[in-house]
Amino acid sequence: MEEKNIPLPRYGKTGGIEELIEYIQPVYRPPSEASSLILQPTLGCSHNRCLFCYMYREKRFRIRDWDEIKTDIDDAASSYPRTRRVFLADGDAFAMSTAQILRILRYLAELFPDLERVTCYASPGNLLEKSVEEMRELRENGLKILYYGVESGDPDILRKVKKGISPGQMVHGCVKATRAGIKLSVTVILGLAGRKGSFRHARKTARVINRINPRYLSALTLITGPRKERFAEMMGEDFQYNDAVDNVRELRDLIENLEVTKCIFRSNHASNYLPLAGTLSKSRERLLSEIDSALANPDDYFKDDWMRGL
Ligand code: SF4
């Protein structure tokens, strides 16, 4: 579950971009792309199987024709020629071939002289399919950040939630991207393993994150909504949902076990009980102490359940 909590693209204070580009809903983007131009060269997610994610269940994955992509870029350039940031939707635009992405990147560079960065989501297998050289070429042509959902470092949990990849494969793919100079913004999901698996999930996730050493790390908290019972059923008969305290303790276990350099951490996603932010190598003790204060007085610090996800 990447950070995809805001379903509508917002570009230009008036939202006027929606009059130029006909978005095929739903459209999701990371919170940090709030002021980016959103383009949709792909629709849906090529994986689309993660048990906790229903964002693209109604969409069949497809890569749009170049003519459609080009028309959207041309339309956006006619009104927003000073665009600096572009986000390529939907769920894993990195599933496109290197040649397809390069074509988009080169055309964007041609039409937007101020362009600083292009970003997109990558799903589990995407990073395995491209070589370091291909990724380097993409980075040199403007692809600067990939958003990637690690979710858990526990192989049993990854299998149960149908992530379609092992922790080792994830590390392998992410290390390739880093070697190519692409920054990674990764997410993990608190509560994904339930109460019994919480400690192991935190420890094993920290271990994977340490090996990836991403530039950005965000923690989200599991929200299953109307699929609550179904999700628990699929996770096994001994699965019990974490409560708020369990989730914040899990966050503590995670942070305590992280050993990363220059990684900016955030838990300010709407799903979380406790918003935190800091650079991990410098602020770990402060983050842990904030968590301890919150755990000692949950009523004062924790977000109410009804406010999560808003
Ligand atoms: S890869 Fe990402 S977008 Fe696709 S189903 Fe999994 S969590 Fe959802």
Order of helices and strands: HEEEHEHEHHEHHEHEHHEEHH
CATH architectural group? Alpha-Beta Horseshoe
Largest sheet: 8 strands, mixed
Which small molecules are bound?
iron/sulfur cluster
Which helices and strands occur, and which strands form pairs?
Layout: H1 17-20, E1 37-39, E2 42-43, E3 62-63, H2 66-79, E4 85-88, H3 98-111, E5 117-122, H4 126-129, H5 132-140, E6 143-151, H6 155-160, H7 167-179, E7 183-190, H8 194-212, E8 216-221, H9 228-235, H10 244-256, E9 264-266, E10 277-279, H11 280-296, H12 298-301
Parallel strand pairs: 1-4, 4-5, 5-6, 6-7, 7-8, 8-9
Antiparallel strand pairs: 2-3, 9-10
Helix pairs in contact: 2-3, 3-5, 7-8, 8-10, 10-11
The chain binds iron/sulfur cluster.
Which features does this protein show?
310 residues, alpha/beta, pyruvate-formate lyase- activating enzyme, two-stranded antiparallel sheet, 12 helices, binds iron/sulfur cluster
Describe this structure in words.
The chain is globular and about 55 Å long. Strand 7 (about 185-190), helix 8 and strand 8 form a beta-alpha-beta unit. The model is unreliable at about 5-15 (pLDDT under 50). The strands form 2 sheets. Strands 1-4-5-6-7-8-9-10 form an 8-stranded mixed sheet. Strands 2-3 form a two-stranded antiparallel sheet. The protein has one domain (about 15-305): tm_1862 like domain (pyruvate-formate lyase- activating enzyme, Alpha-Beta Horseshoe), CATH 3.80.30.20. The protein is about 40% helix and about 15% strand. The relative contact order is 0.10. By secondary structure, the protein is an alpha/beta fold. The structure holds iron/sulfur cluster. Iron/sulfur cluster binds next to loops.
